[in-house]
UniProtKB/TrEMBL annotation, chain A:
<comment type="similarity">
    <text>Belongs to the bacterial solute-binding protein 8 family.</text>
</comment>
<dbReference type="InterPro" id="IPR002491">
    <property type="entry name" value="ABC_transptr_periplasmic_BD"/>
</dbReference>
<keyword id="KW-0410">Iron transport</keyword>
<protein>
    <submittedName>
        <fullName>Fe(3+) dicitrate ABC transporter substrate-binding protein</fullName>
    </submittedName>
</protein>
<keyword id="KW-0408">Iron</keyword>
<feature type="signal peptide">
    <location>
        <begin position="1"/>
        <end position="22"/>
    </location>
</feature>
<keyword id="KW-0732">Signal</keyword>
<feature type="domain" description="Fe/B12 periplasmic-binding">
    <location>
        <begin position="40"/>
        <end position="295"/>
    </location>
</feature>
<keyword id="KW-0406">Ion transport</keyword>
TrEMBL record, chain B:
<protein>
    <submittedName>
        <fullName>Fe(3+) dicitrate ABC transporter permease subunit FecD</fullName>
    </submittedName>
</protein>
<feature type="transmembrane region" description="Helical">
    <location>
        <begin position="54"/>
        <end position="73"/>
    </location>
</feature>
<feature type="transmembrane region" description="Helical">
    <location>
        <begin position="110"/>
        <end position="130"/>
    </location>
</feature>
<feature type="transmembrane region" description="Helical">
    <location>
        <begin position="137"/>
        <end position="161"/>
    </location>
</feature>
<keyword id="KW-0813">Transport</keyword>
<feature type="transmembrane region" description="Helical">
    <location>
        <begin position="227"/>
        <end position="253"/>
    </location>
</feature>
<keyword id="KW-0812">Transmembrane</keyword>
<dbReference type="Pfam" id="PF01032">
    <property type="entry name" value="FecCD"/>
</dbReference>
<feature type="transmembrane region" description="Helical">
    <location>
        <begin position="85"/>
        <end position="104"/>
    </location>
</feature>
C-alpha cells in the first residue's frame, strides 16, 4: 500500500516537474516548444536583452554591434558581463556557436535569412524587434518570460511596468503633442506615431502629431515638413553634434515653429530613445519626459 | 609545361586557403579539432560542418562560376574592360531583390534568390530584345551599361523612399557569403551543368579573338558563338548573384590574372580563370571574416578592395 | 510645334526659354507647400516682404534659394556635359557616365566619415579632388586623346565608377551611423538648399559658366578634328587642360551643393543640339537654360510623389534620364 502510494507520488511529481519546464509559445514562425529552462541565452537585439534583464536573467551573448555602451545602462547594471556576437545585422554564427547557447532569441526582420542556421546551433525563438511598436514589444517580453520559465515573474514585472508608466503619466500633462526626432549632421528623421517612441509617448497620455499617423517607418523631413508638423514639443535625439538643428536655428523660419517660440525643444539620449526598446527603455523614456515637463 | 605547373600551383593554393578558412575565424581551431568537426557529436560540428565548410564550398562554386562568366564575356566582347556587370544582369537581379525587400517586406526571405534570379534573366532578355542577335559587341556592352544605370537608379529610388528596409537591402547589394549554407549550395548545383558547355566553346572563342573577318573565313558563326557564350555567362552570373548578391570585380579581374599566368588559349584559360576566381573569393571571404571578429564584412567589398589596385594597374598596362 | 520652335532664330529661342524658366521658378515658389502659400503671395513675397507672414518667410527663406540653386546646378551640369561632349567628341560623355560623379561621391563620403569636422567646405574640396582624379584616370585609360573608339571611353568610365562605388559602399556599411547622410548625397537633392549654399555656389558657377562661354571658339575648332585644329594654331594640350579645369569647377560647384545629380550632363546637350546645331557659342547658353529648366522641373515633380514628404530630385532625373540614355545608345549604333 505504502509502496503503491510512493510510486503514485513519484509519478505525480515527475509529471509535474516536466510540466513545469515544457513551454510552448507562438513566435513569428509558428509554435515554439522548449522542454527545459534555458541557462545560456544569446540575444540578437537590444530589446531582447532588456526583456531578459527585466526578469534578472543574464544573456551570455548579445549582438551589440561591438559597442557595449549601446546596451541600456540599466540593463548593463543587471546583466553584468557578456560576449559580443557581432553586429545586429550580421551576427557571427561561429561566435554564437562557440558560446554553446541553449536558447537564441532573434529578430524576424533582421535574422529571418539565418533562422535555419540558428536552429542548428540551439532552439531559436524568432520575434519582431526592429520596426516594432510599443505594444508589440510588451507582447514579445511576455513571450520571452514564458520561454525562460519565468512567466509569473514577467507578468509581475509587466504589471509593475504598467503601474510605473501610469505614475509617470500622472506627472505629465494630458494630450500635449510631442514629436521625437533623430538629428544627424545634415538630416532629420522623425519617428512617426506608429514607431516605438511614438507608442510610448501615446501610452503616457501625450499625443502624436496628426500628420505622422499611419506610417510605420521613420521619415526624413526638411524644415518645411517640420513646419507642417509644427509640434508643441520637439524631442531631439542627436546622433552627432553639431547637427542640422543647429543650422536650422540660425534661419528666420525656425522662429516660426511653436517649439522655438515657447522654448520647447529638448534633447535626450538618441540611443535610449531609438535603438534600445524594451520595458526599461520605456521607463527611461518616461523618466526623461517627466524631467522635461517638470522643468 | 608552364601552364600545367601554373594550374597545379593554383589548385594547391585553393586547397591551402580552404584549409585556412576551416581553421581560422572568430575561434581558431587546430587540425585535430577540424577533423573532429566532421563528426556530428563533436562540439565543433556546427562551426566546421555547418558553417565554415559550406561557406568555403560556396566560395569555390561562386568564385569559379563568376570568373568563368567574366572570361566568356571578355572573350566575346574582346574588350579587357568588359565583365558580366556590363550586361546589366547583376543590377537587374539587384533591382528585383530590392523590390521584393522594400515593396513586399512581408514576403518570406526564402523567395529572395528566386526573385533575384528572375530579375537577372529578365534583364538579359531585355538586353537581347534591345540589341537583337546581330549587333556589334561594343553596342551590346554600352546598351548593357545603360540598362545597368537604369536599374541602379531605380534601386536608389526605392531605397530612399523606403528608409526602414535600407540596411537589409544594402547588405545584400554588397555581396556576401554570410548566413549561406548547404541549402544555397544545392540551389547552385544544377547550374554547374553550364560549365562543360562553356568549355566546349573554347576553340571558337580563340577564333573570335583573331577578329571577326578571320573567324568568319574559318567557318565560325560569330553571332551563334556570341549568343551561346553570353547565354551561358548570363546563367552563371544570375545564379551566383541570386545566392550571394552582386560580387564586384571578380568577373573582371580573374580572367586577366589567369591570362597573365597561362596565356590566351581558351582551352587552358577557362579552367585557370575558374581557379583564380576561387582563390580570390575564398581569400576575400576569409579576410572579411577574420579582420575584426565578431564583425562580419561583406566579401563583395573585400573583392573590390583586393581587386581594385590590381585592376587599376592592369588598366594602365593594357592601355 | 517643336519643329516650328526649332526654326525660330536663336534670339527668339533664348527669350522663350527664359520666359518658361521664369514661369517655372514662380511655380516652384508656391506649388505643393504644406504650409499654404498662394500664387499671388509668391509674387508679393518678393516685392513687398512682410516677414510676419509665414508664407512670405517660406518663399524667401526656403523656396527662392531652392529654385535659384536648382537652376544654377542644372545649368552648371548641362554646360559641363556639353564641354565634355565637345572635348571628347563622344556623344555619351557626361559627368555621370565618365565616372566624375562617382569619384566625387567617394571623396565626399571619405571626408564626411573620416573627418566630419571639415564641414561643408571640406567636403566640396574632397568632392572636387575625387572628381578630378577619376576624370583624369578615365581620360587616360579610355585613350580619349588619341581618338579611341567611343565604347572604350565609356567602358573605362563605367569600370572606374564601379570601383569608386564599391569603396563608397564599403565606407557606408562600416559607418552605418552616417550612412543616411551619404545616401542622401548620392541621390542628389536641392530640398535642403539655403542662402548659405547659394553664397557658396554662385562664385564658382559664375567663373565656370563665363569661362565656358569664353572657350567656345576653341571647342568649335576642336570639333573639326585634331589635325585641323592643330593646323589652325590651337595648342591642343592647353585647350584640353583648360576645358578639363572648367568642367571640374562646374561639376564640383554643382555636386557640393546638390549631391550627385546624374544624367543632366548627358541629356541636355543633345536636346540643345537638336535646337541650335553644333555651334558651341549658341549651344552652351541654350544648354545652360535647358539644364536649369530640367532640374527645376524635376525638383517640382519630386514634391507630390510621396507628399508631404519629398523624393530626391536626382532620383527622378535618373528615372527619366536612363531610358533616354538607352535610346541614345541604340539609335547611335543603328
Amino acid at each position: 500500500m505504502l509502496r503503491a502510494l510512493n510510486i503514485l507520488l513519484t509519478t505525480l511529481l515527475f509529471s509535474l516537474s516536466s510540466a513545469v519546464f515544457a513551454v510552448s509559445v507562438e513566435d513569428s514562425k509558428g509554435t515554439f516548444t522548449l522542454d527545459y529552462a534555458p541557462k545560456r541565452i544569446v540575444v540578437l537585439e537590444f530589446s531582447f536583452a532588456d526583456a531578459l534583464a527585466s526578469v534578472n536573467v543574464s544573456p551570455v551573448g548579445i549582438a551589440d554591434d561591438k559597442k557595449p555602451t549601446r546596451v541600456l545602462k540599466e540593463v548593463r547594471d543587471i546583466i553584468g558581463e557578456w560576449t559580443s556576437v557581432g553586429t545586429r545585422s550580421q551576427p557571427s554564427l561561429e561566435v554564437i556557436s562557440s558560446l554553446k547557447p541553449d536558447l537564441i532569441i532573434a529578430d524576424i526582420n533582421r535574422h529571418e535569412a539565418i533562422y535555419e542556421d540558428l536552429k542548428k546551433i540551439a532552439p531559436t525563438v524568432i520575434l519582431q524587434s526592429r520596426g516594432e511598436t510599443y505594444q508589440d514589444n510588451l507582447k514579445s517580453a511576455a513571450i520571452i518570460g514564458k520561454v525562460l520559465g519565468k512567466e509569473g515573474e514577467m507578468q509581475q514585472r509587466l504589471a509593475q511596468h504598467k503601474d510605473t508608466m501610469q505614475r509617470f503619466a500622472e506627472q505629465l500633462p494630458n494630450a500635449v503633442e510631442v514629436q521625437f526626432s533623430i538629428a544627424r549632421k545634415d538630416n532629420m528623421y522623425i519617428h512617426t506615431a506608429d514607431s516605438y517612441a511614438g507608442g510610448v509617448i501615446r501610452a503616457l497620455g501625450l499625443s502624436n502629431p496628426e500628420i505622422t499617423k499611419g506610417d510605420k517607418a521613420s521619415r526624413k523631413v526638411g524644415l518645411e515638413q517640420l513646419l507642417a508638423i509644427n509640434p508643441e514639443h520637439l524631442i531631439l535625439g542627436p546622433y552627432s553634434t553639431p547637427n542640422i538643428v543647429d543650422t536650422w536655428k540660425t534661419e528666420p523660419l525656425w522662429s516660426v515653429l511653436k517649439v522655438a517660440q515657447n522654448g520647447n525643444l529638448h534633447e535626450v539620449d538618441a540611443n535610449v530613445w531609438s535603438r534600445c526598446r524594451g520595458i526599461m527603455a520605456a521607463e527611461r523614456i518616461a523618466q526623461d519626459l517627466v524631467t522635461i515637463f517638470q522643468k | 609545361m608552364k601552364t600545367l605547373l601554373s594550374s597545379f600551383l593554383l589548385a594547391l593554393l585553393v586547397a591551402f586557403i580552404v584549409a585556412l578558412s576551416l581553421s581560422l575565424g572568430a575561434v581558431s581551431l587546430s587540425f585535430e579539432q577540424i577533423l573532429s568537426g566532421f563528426d556530428a557529436s563533436s562540439e565543433f560540428y556546427f562551426t566546421i560542418h555547418e558553417y565554415r565548410l559550406p561557406r568555403s564550398i560556396l566560395a569555390i562554386l561562386v568564385g569559379g562560376m563568376m570568373a568563368l562568366s567574366g572570361a566568356l564575356v571578355q572573350g566575346v566582347i574582346r574588350n579587357p574592360l568588359a565583365s558580366p556587370d556590363v550586361l546589366g544582369v547583376s543590377q537587374g537581379a539587384g533591382l528585383a531583390a530590392v523590390i521584393l525587400m522594400t515593396i513586399f517586406p512581408s514576403v518570406s526571405i526564402f523567395w529572395l534568390p528566386w526573385a533575384a534570379l528572375s530579375g537577372g534573366i529578365i534583364a538579359a532578355l531585355f538586353l537581347w530584345f534591345l540589341c537583337g542577335s546581330h549587333s556589334g559587341a561594343i553596342k551590346l556592352a554600352i546598351t548593357g551599361v545603360a540598362m545597368a544605370a537604369l536599374y541602379s537608379s531605380a534601386v536608389d529610388f526605392l531605397m530612399l523612399t523606403k528608409p526602414l528596409e535600407v540596411n537589409n537591402a544594402l547588405l545584400w547589394l554588397t555581396g556576401s557569403l554570410w548566413g549561406r549554407g548547404w541549402n544555397q549550395i544545392t540551389m547552385l548545383l544544377p547550374w554547374l551543368v553550364l560549365i562543360p558547355f562553356a568549355f566546349s566553346l573554347a576553340k571558337r572563342l580563340n577564333l573570335i579573338g583573331l577578329g571577326d573577318d578571320v573567324a568568319t573565313s574559318l567557318g565560325t558563326s560569330i553571332s551563334m558563338t556570341r549568343l551561346w557564350a553570353l547565354t551561358i555567362a548570363v546563367g552563371l552570373t544570375a545564379s551566383c548573384v541570386s545566392i550571394c548578391g552582386p560580387i564586384g570585380f571578380l568577373g573582371l579581374i580573374a580572367p586577366h590574372l589567369a591570362r597573365r599566368l597561362v596565356g590566351g588559349r581558351h582551352q587552358v584559360l577557362l579552367p585557370c580563370t575558374m581557379l583564380v576566381g576561387m582563390v580570390i573569393l575564398l581569400l576575400a571571404d576569409l579576410v572579411a571574416r577574420i579582420i575584426n571578429p565578431p564583425i562580419e564584412l561583406s566579401a563583395g567589398i573585400m573583392t573590390a578592395i583586393i581587386g581594385a589596385p590590381y585592376f587599376l594597374w592592369l588598366l594602365f598596362k593594357v592601355r | 510645334m517643336l519643329n516650328r520652335f526649332k526654326k525660330q532664330s536663336y534670339l527668339v529661342q533664348c527669350t522663350a526659354l527664359l520666359a518658361v524658366l521664369c514661369l517655372f521658378i514662380w511655380l516652384s515658389l508656391f506649388s505643393w507647400s504644406i504650409v499654404p502659400v498662394s500664387a499671388s503671395q509668391a509674387i508679393t513675397a518678393l516685392f513687398q516682404t512682410d516677414k510676419s507672414i509665414i508664407a512670405h518667410s517660406i518663399v524667401l527663406d526656403l523656396r527662392l534659394p531652392r529654385a535659384l540653386i536648382a537652376c544654377t546646378v542644372g545649368a552648371c551640369l548641362a554646360v559641363a556635359g556639353a564641354i565634355m561632349q565637345g572635348l571628347t567628341r563622344n556623344p555619351l560623355a557626361s559627368p555621370s557616365v565618365l565616372g566624375v560623379n562617382a569619384g566625387a561621391a567617394l571623396g565626399m563620403a571619405t571626408v564626411t566619415i573620416l573627418a566630419p569636422s571639415f564641414g561643408l567646405f571640406g567636403s566640396s574640396v574632397a568632392a572636387m579632388l575625387g572628381g578630378a582624379v577619376t576624370w583624369a584616370l578615365v581620360m587616360v585609360l579610355g585613350s580619349a586623346w588619341r581618338g579611341g573608339e567611343h565604347g572604350r571611353l565609356v567602358l573605362a568610365g563605367v569600370a572606374i565608377s564601379a570601383l569608386c562605388a564599391a569603396f563608397t559602399k564599403a565606407i557606408l556599411i562600416l559607418h552605418e551611423d552616417q550612412a543616411s547622410a551619404v545616401l542622401t548625397w548620392l541621390a542628389g537633392t536641392v530640398a535642403n538648399a539655403r542662402w548659405g549654399h547659394w553664397h557658396q555656389l554662385w562664385p564658382m558657377a559664375l567663373i565656370g559658366l563665363v569661362g565656358a562661354q569664353l572657350i567656345t571658339p576653341t571647342l568649335n575648332l576642336l570639333n573639326l578634328g585634331e589635325d585641323n585644329a592643330r593646323s589652325l594654331g590651337i595648342k591642343l594640350g592647353w585647350a584640353r587642360i583648360l576645358c578639363s579645369i572648367l568642367v571640374l569647377i562646374l561639376v564640383a560647384a554643382a555636386l557640393s551643393v546638390a549631391g550627385s545629380i546624374a544624367f543632366i550632363g548627358l541629356l541636355v546637350p543633345h536636346m540643345a543640339r537638336s535646337l541650335v546645331g553644333h555651334d558651341h557659342r549658341k549651344l552652351l547658353p541654350i544648354s545652360a537654360m535647358l539644364g536649369a529648366l530640367l532640374l527645376l522641373a524635376a525638383d517640382i515633380i519630386s514634391r507630390p510623389i510621396i507628399f508631404p514628404l519629398e523624393t530626391p530630385a536626382g532620383a527622378i532625373l535618373a528615372l527619366i534620364g536612363a531610358p533616354f540614355f538607352i535610346y541614345m545608345v541604340s539609335r547611335r549604333n543603328r
